[in-house]
Specification:
The protein is α+β, with helices and mostly antiparallel strands. About 30% of the residues lie in helices and about 25% in strands. A hairpin with a 2-residue loop joins strand 9 and strand 10.
């Protein structure tokens, strides 16, 4: 008999055959693992090739407990005792086997250290006498229930099949099935939200199944809906953001995707829908997405209502002046409810208007949404036709709401200066809301929807009225503001007389009150002819923006006239006497600035300016052709400060033929975000471009930009010298 390869030599005792025996060599080529044990200690007597490849080359002649000392599942050894004791076969299906270490790697089969594998085992009892060529009684398998034979010659035949791959495949299938069940439960949870709109897309997007609910809500057919066709039903402003968010979800694969967009319903209106979607996986691969769309229009409107009311309360709380409060209302209306709005005041302090005839209102604030034509000027008087919608809203003190086409805006829908803007912006709906406080019509608000925005609806009108009513307390002082402002303006206008036009000179003046609430300031100008025939131009600015400033301004104007006509002296001396008289008679008046120019004939027949400046911006000399220069040779400190008499000086400047001398207040050049020198340079450049324009055109053009953006009073007075050829 030849010893099997790889088996150690065996010393026979008492003529007994070797433990592996020639009877078992027939199992060496078997495709399953086989082994034989002997005796009650289950000494390992034989292992075939497959067994050695799977479990390693275990030493024969050792008990199993020693040969498999690295086996984690020690309870398997008890099965050998049961088979040997009862003679009955035992089978174990898909049993886990973990071998901590041991031989076998050198046999060419790599195994994971401490890796778990699965085997199906069959253990059968062997009794003496079966297949024993030497007649030693070993090797015969016992029939079930047969009484055990000689214990020393009995054994156990082990047949093991590696089923690791099958077990793992089954487990993967179970996990995939569980994941699909979880996805299904998520999908069912989404469906339980009550929406009828469910949809399915491919792993990388694009609807792949019809959605009856979607078709019912949007009117899109399956052919229109499939793929990315569903995007056509979204609001134009929501398509790009939604598509970007959806593509990001397809790339990142979150546990749940959620988005809110506006969806066009079958009646052509848009409603807000909440979209939820979850990925469906097979293993680690996303195979599709399932989702729902839920109509949340009512919840969205209620949330918007709360947010807008909170926003309105916050901005109104920060407003310190009535005009600021009204402007803040425009910032709430646009862009939340409209694309353009205007705020208007009525001329009568008590809000009273005539029962017929046109109505004049003052637009004090305007607001337009970004992307539309440039804003209209904030301050402007508007004349409303007697039978216009705007005039009806004022007379009847009721809200007017209307829709129309951009090509046919009804006459009287808006003030005339606004209509052309509305046509360019594509306006299609509007609302006019009077603000009545304590029975007084305090203001009027108009709002317009333009372009592809949905028309202003009843709920929007109700919301606008609600937060305008919420604004009553901050706006309660508007009526008082109007009365105070008109009294102050009347006082100012009574003093700002029309300039004289002496000896071929052309003098013109402009006054623009502060657009900021009731802030009527102390800016003033004057022009008169002295007893000797010399014209005089004066401009000044009293510190403050209230009735007190206007009263101080009137006092200084009258005192300046008296001092200038009292005697013939240089302008610096007149300003010195004005300052001394003011500080003596009214020590609490505060500070002021002024510039005084006496216009004198020269021996050659030309003109010169004899001037002095006290804390005021320097006069600007504008020569024909665009040469400009500030006259700053006769500057001195503010009025109302302790000053030496010799500080008040005068200077003389020749005036070129057809040239212009411009006196102005700081409102023309000052901006809160820049240095005064920048404003002066801006004025100089603008005046140079207008040097050859008519005097009225020059003045009006210089005022146009500050009138739209400024927040201070502006006065200017300009002199145009005759052309030498005239």
């Amino acid at each position: 008999m030849t010893r099997p390869p790889g088996r150690p030599a065996f010393d026979a005792q008492d003529g007994a055959p070797p433990p592996w025996g020639p009877d078992w060599s027939m199992f060496d080529p078997a495709p399953v693992a086989m082994a034989v044990t002997r005796g009650p200690r289950h000494t390992l007597a034989y292992t075939n090739r497959v067994y050695r490849e799977v479990f390693g080359d275990r030493p024969l002649g050792q008990p199993l407990a020693e040969a498999f000392a690295d086996l984690r599942e020690r309870e398997y050894f008890d099965l050998f005792d049961r088979v040997l004791d009862t003679g009955e076969a035992v089978s174990v299906t898909a049993a886990p086997v973990r071998i901590a270490s041991g031989p076998g790697e050198e046999d060419g089969r790599a195994r994971e250290e401490d890796g778990e594998r699965f085997f199906t085992f069959s253990l059968s009892a062997l009794t003496p006498g079966h297949s024993d060529r030497h007649g030693d009684g070993e090797g015969r398998a016992a029939a079930p229930g047969q009484p055990p034979g000689d214990a020393g010659r009995r054994g156990v035949l082990v047949v093991a099949v590696d089923v690791t791959e099958q077990v793992r495949t089954t487990e993967r299938a179970r996990q995939q099935s569980e994941e699909r069940r979880r996805a299904l439960r998520r999908y069912e949870s989404l469906a339980a939200t009550g929406t009828r709109m469910m949809w399915v897309t491919a792993a990388k997007g694009g609807t792949i199944e019809p959605s009856p609910g979607w078709e019912e809500v949007t009117g899109q057919s399956w052919e229109e809906f499939r793929g990315d066709g569903w995007l056509d039903a979204l609001h134009p402003h929501d398509r790009a953001p939604m598509l970007a968010a959806w593509r990001r979800a397809l790339e990142e694969v979150p546990e749940q995707f959620e988005y809110v967009y506006r969806l066009r319903t079958v009646d052509g209106t848009y409603r807000h829908f909440d979209v939820k979607a979850v990925p469906v996986r097979e293993g680690d691969t996303v195979v599709e997405w399932v989702g729902t769309c839920t109509d949340i229009e009512q919840q969205w409107r209620e949330q918007r209502r709360r947010d807008l009311l909170a926003h309105a309360a916050a901005v109104l709380a920060e407003a310190t002046q009535p005009r600021d409060a009204l402007t803040a209302l425009g910032e709430v209306i646009v862009p939340a409810l409209a694309d353009k709005c205007g705020i208007y005041l009525l001329p009568a302090p008590d809000g009273h208007v005539a029962p017929d005839g046109p109505i004049t209102v003052e637009r004090i604030a305007t607001r337009t949404r970004e992307g539309f034509p440039p804003e209209l000027p904030g301050r402007r008087e508007e004349r409303l036709e007697a039978h216009s919608a705007f005039a009806r809203a004022i007379r009847e003190r009721r809200t007017i709401h209307a829709t129309f086409t951009p090509q046919a805006i009804p006459p009287g829908t808006a003030p005339p200066a606004t209509v052309s803007w509305l046509e360019r912006a594509g306006a299609h709906s509007m609302v006019i809301v009077p603000i009545v406080i304590d029975g007084t019509l305090a203001a009027v608000v108009d709002a317009f929807a333009c372009g592809d925005r949905e028309p202003i609806g009843p709920s929007d009108v109700a919301l606008m009225r609600e937060f305008l009513e919420q604004a009553h307390e901050p706006l309660r002082h508007i009526a008082e503001f109007q009365r105070t402002r008109r009294v102050a303006l009347a006082l100012q206008h009574s003093l700002l007389t029309e300039p004289p036009q002496p000896q071929g000179l052309r003098i013109t003046a402009r006054y623009l009150p502060s657009p900021t609430a009731a802030e009527v300031g102390g800016d003033w100008y004057d022009s008169f002819v002295l007893p000797d025939g010399a014209p005089v131009m004066v401009i000044g600015d009293v510190a403050g923006h209230d009735i007190a400033a206007a009263v101080t301004m009137s006092k200084m104007r009258n005192m300046m006239r008296g001092l200038a006509t009292d005697r013939q002296e240089p302008p610096g001396d007149i300003i010195r006497r004005l300052d001394r008289a003011t500080q003596t008679l009214n020590p609490e008046e505060g500070t002021a600035t002024c510039a005084l120019a006496r216009l004198e004939k020269t021996p050659t027949g030309g003109w010169q300016a004899h001037y002095s400046v006290a804390g005021h911006p320097p006069p600007l000399l504008i020569a024909p052709g665009g040469r400009t220069r500030f006259l700053d040779e006769a500057g001195s400190p503010l009025l109302g400060l302790p000053t030496c008499d010799d500080w008040r000086i005068s200077a003389v400047e020749p005036l070129p033929a057809a040239g212009t001398l411009l006196l102005y207040t700081d409102g023309l050049v000052e901006r809160p975000d820049e240095d005064i020198d920048q404003g002066l340079e801006r004025l100089r450049r603008a005046a140079a471009l207008l040097a050859d324009e008519p005097l009225d055109v020059l003045c009006d053009t210089l005022l146009a930009e500050p009138a739209a953006t400024g927040r201070d009073d502006i006065c200017l007075i300009a002199l145009r010298v005759p052309d030498a050829a005239a």
